[in-house]
Hints:
- The protein contains five helices and ten strands.
- The protein is of the alpha+beta class.
- Strand 6 and strand 7 form a beta hairpin.
Amino acid sequence: MTIVSDAIRNGVDTGKMFATLDLIKAQPELAKFQFRATNRWIGGAHNRSTIKGFYAAGGEDTTRNGDFQLDAGEPAILLGADTGPNPAEYLLHALAACLTTSIVYVAAARKVELGSVESTLTGDMDVRGALGVDEEPRNGFERIHVSFRVTGNAPEEKLREVVERASQRSAVYDMVTNGVPVALQVAAG
C-alpha cells in the first residue's frame, strides 16, 4: 500500500528530497560521495564482500549500525558450489535496483503515485572470453536487456517518461552504459 500525502509519495519524503536537492545546488561540495566494499576469498569460487562505511556530504557516514555481507560464487557448471549469485548476476541486480530506485524518486518528484514497479533483466554472455579459451568474445556481457512493468495513477505516456528520465539519472545505468575507469593496485607478499 502506497502512502500519499503532500510530503510522502511512493514512500519518499518529497519535502526532504527537494530540500536535499536545494542544499546540494547551494553547496556542491556536499555532492562528493565515496562508496566502499571490501572482499575476502573464502574458497573455490566463494568470496564475501562487506559493505558498511562511506563518505558523504562532507564527512564519514556513521548512521549504519551494522554491515552488509554479500556472498558470491558460481554455479556448478562454472566450477562453483552455488554459494551465492555470480558477479555478473550482482551487476544485473545493481542495475535493476538503481533503475527502480530512480523510477520511484522521479515519480515522487513528478507527483506520480506508483502501484508497482517490476523488472526483468537478462545479460547475454559468451563465457569463452572470460574462460580464456577464445580471444574473440569479450569477457563480459555482450548486451543487457531490461524490461519494466510500471503501474500508477498516470497515463501510460507519463509512466514511460518517468522511466526514461530515471534511466537518465540512474548512476549504475550510467556506469554500465558509459564505462568507468578502474585502477588496479596489487600488494603481493
